[in-house]
Amino acid sequence: METKIQEKDIFELIFNGKQAVPAIILERALEGMQRAIHLLAMDYEKVEVRQKERISSDIDRKYALFCMPPQDGSIVVPTIIGDPTIDLFASEDINQVKRLFTDCISYISEKNISKFIELIPDRIRRFKIIEAIRYMLPKKSSGIRLNVKHAENIFFDSTQVQNVIKEFLPKYINEQIVQTVTGRLSKIDFDEHKITILYPITNRELECFYDDSIEDLLLEHPRDLIQVTGNVILDDNDHPKKIIDVEDIREVDISPVHLSEFIYSDYKLIFKELKFLTPELDETQQMICLEDISLGIDIVAFTRDELEEALYSELDVLWRNYALCKDDLLTSEAKQLKENLLSAIEAINAERET
Question: Fewest C-beta in 10 Å: which of 72, 91, 168, 327?
Fold first, then answer.
């Protein structure tokens, strides 16, 4: 990105309360902000809403969150949103998404739910945006307060948002959202075509109805963990209390993932040696995790399909942002990641293939 950065483009993340900020708090704030920006960009670009929002490489490059050098003598992290050099209309699009971000925070801070619904009509995407913003908030026990400043105005105050979002969020979590829930199969009623799963986090039993076509699966996996996807109603603590309109029931698939070839619109990534990664369930048994520190892979997903989609997108982002990046723009850790990617993967562009 080669463009002159103006004062009006900068969003300052200001951490107050302590002389040093734990890295995890800084990481969560940036990750949550990037997630919210991506979701708002997808809404602005009219990308179809899906249970697992897949960030395309175009959205990621156009609306990336960039960190600038911290200010001397303070814990202030200047950031800019988006790369206006991507295309002719990128600058205006990015400005619109910035406005969406500041408006979202303002409506949440003001408890103006009707305006927020008007701004983001789709309830599933609203829920995910709220979750991303909530992820940004430092825990109260940390003693740290986060403000975000833009155009000389502090529009984000983590303490204010934290106090309001408790009242705001239940209005959404008590709605039905499409979600995948993992639980241990405990009962099968073949006459009513009903199963009961035990949700491991709360030990709550959840009943749902199934289709005849999956009876063999249920018989093959008695007492095993299974995944149910459907309209889920959550309680005030964000835990499932009821599953209705079941869309899918399947076994939990944590078999090894093999890395060989990944084809994108303009190039192909080929692993020089076939590589296997073994997914694991997290401590809640709700998320499937896949990690390879040497290649920068660190993803989580509810289902195997979502995990593989996320891996596809992750490799594209890693290759574009690290393997193709100039060394003088990378930290020493990022340079090592670049070396690892180039050692493990060969890229073939579309022109070369033809």
Answer: 72
Q: What is the DSSP string of 23-53?
A: HHHHHHHHHHHHHHHHHHHHHHTTPPP-SS-
Q: Do 242 and 156 share a structural domain?
A: no
Sign of the dihedral through C-alpha 126, 182, 54, 335: positive
Domain match, 290 and 330 both: yes
Q: Is this structure's pTM higher than 0.85?
A: no
**DSSP-assigned letters across all residues of 130-170:** HHHHHHHSPPGGGT-EEEEEETTEEEEEHHHHHHHHHHHTH
Same structural domain, 106 and 187: no
Structure tokens at 28: 């969560």
Residue 2 in any domain: the answer is: no
Tell me the two tokens of residue 226.
Answer: 């299974």
Q: Do both 209 and 228 map to the same domain?
A: yes
Contact present, 217 and 272 (Cβ < 8 Å):
no
Beta-carbon contacts of residue 155 (< 8 Å; ≥ 6 apart) = 102, 105, 106, 109, 148, 149
Q: Which of 173, 192, 214 is the last residue of a domain?
A: 173
Inter-residue long-range contacts of 41-46, CB under 8 Å, 24+ positions, other chains counted: 41/93, 41/97, 42/125, 43/100, 43/120, 43/122, 43/125, 44/93, 44/96, 44/97, 44/100, 45/93
Q: Is residue 85 a contact partner of residue 2, using CB atoms and an 8 Å limit?
A: yes
Which CATH number covers residue 187? 2.40.50.140
Which residues neighbour 310 within 8 Å (Cβ) at sequence distance 6 or greater?
A: 52, 54, 299, 300, 301
| Count: domains in the chain | 3
115 and 221, same structural domain?
no
Which residue range forms the structural domain that includes residue 330? 257-353
pLDDT tens figures, 35-74: 999 999 999 998 887 655 678 888 988 999 998 877 665 5
In a domain, 1, yes or no: no
Specify whether the CB–CB gap between 63 and 42 falls below 8 A.
no
Q: What integer pLDDT is reported at residue 96 of this predicted model?
A: 95
Tens-digit pLDDT profile for residues 201-260: 899 999 888 777 677 777 776 667 889 888 888 776 778 888 887 878 888 889 999 999
